[in-house]
Amino acid sequence: MPHCQPAASLIAAMGGLSSVANAANVSVTSVQRWRLPQRKGGTGGIIPAKYHARLMKHAATRGVALPLAAFVDPKAAASLIAAE
Questions:
Q1: How far, in Å, CA of 40 to CA of 70, rounded?
Q2: What value, to the nearest 5°, has the Cα angle with vertex 53 and ends 1 and 45?
Q3: Which pLDDT score is estimated for 80?
Q4: Does the global pTM surpass 0.90?
Q5: Range list of H helices, the chain
Q6: Of 4, 7, 43, 84, which one has the greatest count of Cβ atoms within 10 A?
Q7: Under 8 Å between Cβ of 51 and 24
Q8: pLDDT of 10-21, one tens digit each?
Q9: Do the Cβ atoms of 29 and 18 come closer than 8 Å?
């Protein structure tokens, strides 16, 4: 089952599930749900807005320029992976 975008690309660009979970101060299971379709109990690729600022700071520490558009635009998120 393919993971939902843009969450899957953002998670990959920021070092994976554990790294993102630590940055957002949530469980790995919560981060996994961001990649799942809604019919499977996930968010359909949407990262909740309350975590955006934390994740942008985390991305900066990893040298990843994470524009706000990447949280809503799958093409912008996919470009993060291509830039690595």
A1: 23
A2: 15
A3: 67
A4: no
A5: 7-13, 17-24, 28-35, 52-61, 74-83
A6: 7
A7: yes
A8: 999 889 999 999
A9: no
Place of tokens 């499977």: 40
Write the pLDDT tens digit of every residue in 31-78. 999 999 999 999 999 999 999 999 999 889 888 888 888 888 777 666
Give the pair of three-digit tokens for residue 15.
């070092």
Copy the structure tokens of residue 82.
């291509």
- What six digits make up the tokens of 72? 């809503």
Tokens representing residue 4 in the block: 């939902």
Which tokens is 56 given? 């942008």
The identity of residue 12, as a single letter, is A
Q: Is 4:72 a contact under the CB 8 Å cutoff? A: no
**Amino acid residing at 46:** I
User: CA-to-CA distance for 82 and 71, rounded, in angstroms?
Assistant: 16
Give CA–CA dist 42/80, Å, rounded: 22
